[in-house]
Amino acid sequence: xxxxxxxxxxxxxxxxxxxxxxxxxxxxxxxxxxxxxxxxxxxxxxxxxxxxxxxxxxxxxxxxxxxxxxxxxxxxxxxxxxxxxxxxxxxxxxxxxxxxxxxxxxxxxxxxxxxxxxxxxxxxxxxxxxxxxxxxxxxxxxxxxxxxxxxxxxxxxxxxxxxxxxxxxxxxxxxxxxxxxxxxxxxxxxxxxxxxxxxxxxxxxxxxxxxxxxxxxxxxxxxxxxxxxxxxxxxxxxxxxxxxxxxxxxxxxxxxxxxxxxxxxxxxxxxxxxxxxxxxxxxxxxxxxxxxxxxxxxxxxxxxx
Length: 305
Ligand SMILES: [Fe+2]
Fold this sequence. Notes:
alpha+beta, 9-stranded mixed β-sheet, 8-stranded mixed β-sheet, binds fe (ii) ion
């Protein structure tokens, strides 16, 4: 993904602290950061206000691109097709999407540490290995991106009928959780008063890494805290949301639902609080309505925006 931000250096430092690695030697005014297993996943470019400039999506082969091209034609959306890539702009949200043929991201198997439970002393006579962990938490990869759209239904059609995403769960009239991999969701589009980036979510090994990562980020920076620790109902993942210096939320998550067999997953319609979470502290109002939303709306109408 390419993120436009008013202060590239400050944002880059934040995501380095968050556990990404700065990739050096790139020409141009921007910066690139990589995850442990997803590779170069976050590019930063200077921009007047924070905004998602481009979203990159992987495809297995040129046949996928052909299917996407056919879908977009049916929707009447124009696109640029090259041998190994396809570029298209969602006419509704104006989000630029680049689909590229490439290898799938493979993740090394995370070690399952024994835990104790009632009648189940699986870790007898020893301390939890998690409390001995040291060093910076390193997100494995970018897991999902959440955007606000002026017309959620239209954006959903663009991503499902156009780009081939599948809907995993829905909150009617408000949001749809979509996947282009075995993750429960890689993209969430929610109804909003403007098109904007709500958050990015980065996978870590387990709930201890969620907690350790957030604790380290909050040391000396309590203003970064947004919401957590909690567990979502939709997608089941543990979460902790933090805020980067220009107002983008970034989430550490673990234990997201995985859908290996589409036939075995029944998309559900979720309403009420469960659309947001299963347990945790109540979400702050600024999670639903980010504090800079009004400024972003004004900015989006400014000349040159
Ligand atoms: Fe999330």
